[in-house]
Amino acid sequence: MSAKDEMRAMLAQLMGTEVDNTPKVKFTDRSVCRPFLLGCCPHEVLDSTRMDIGKCRQIHDYAAKADYEKANAEKDLDFETDAMYELRAFIRDIDRRIDLSKKDLIETQEELSTDVEIKANMVHDIGEHIGKKLAEAERQGADGNVEESLKLMEEVEKLKEEKKKAEMDYRNCMPASTYQQQKLRVCEICSAYLGIHDNDRRLADHFGGKLHLGFIKLREKLTALEKIAEVNAEKRRVDREERRSSRNSPDRDRGRRDRNRERRRSRSRSREKERKRNGRDRDGDSRRSSSYRSSRRDDSPDRSRSKSKSTKVSDE
């Protein structure tokens, strides 16, 4: 990455997608790598190491990462669960590789007696402690923590004395020809091979190296993500229970019964009004019919007299 690209990436991390007017990558897109958003994509963490696994197939965009961090601070987006599943699959694959490497060593290395195996493991363990403390002392010194660095170096010197005694015990309990053979062990963190005769410098380079520290970061991140995912899953379970309880609660049933009762009353009032309206209409029709018949009776004598007069005139 050029200096200009590094500056652009740093600016994107600070400003997010507001840096310029170029097309934006949304962090919610499924094509964006969620482990990357959470800082634990193995493709990035193990870049340029012995176990470099190449470029990630998903999008790594620092501006989108900055947008995610801002949005997640305001509202829990629960991206941790997806990232956990992806990272867990990778770590499980590495653990299977470690188991296979151990089996290969058992098959290829000369079998040792139980007592010799214990002594060999003692040398390995002390050597690992020396390498880890030496690497940590160098980091503390680089950070300006001189006192802490000196304290760690004192512990390293004590461990070196212990290692010499352990190596002597190991050498004395087996033939010289066998002792010269490199007794290997598989690193439980990163799957690298470590030799019982590795010097302190090599061990320090291993335990303070990018590969080993990268795997420590990934494993610690997986543990943290699993805890967060468990908490989020419990929250979702509680929410579902509350919604189910709310649907089945007595207050909800009472409210439903009250609404049904009110609808029945409303329909009953509507039917009553309709009956009254129909009754008034029938009464009106009856009165009009009666009035009509009465007027017909009143007009009948007049028509009779008129008809009689007409007959008389005709006779004359």
TrEMBL record:
Biased composition (Basic and acidic residues): 233-261, 269-288, 295-305
GO biological process: mRNA splice site recognition
Region of interest called Disordered, as start-end residue ranges on this chain: 233-316
Gene Ontology CC terms: U1 snRNP
Gene Ontology MF annotations: mRNA binding
TM ranges: none
Family label: Belongs to the Luc7 family.
Protein name according to UniProt: RNA-binding protein Luc7-like 2
Species this protein is from: Ramazzottius varieornatus
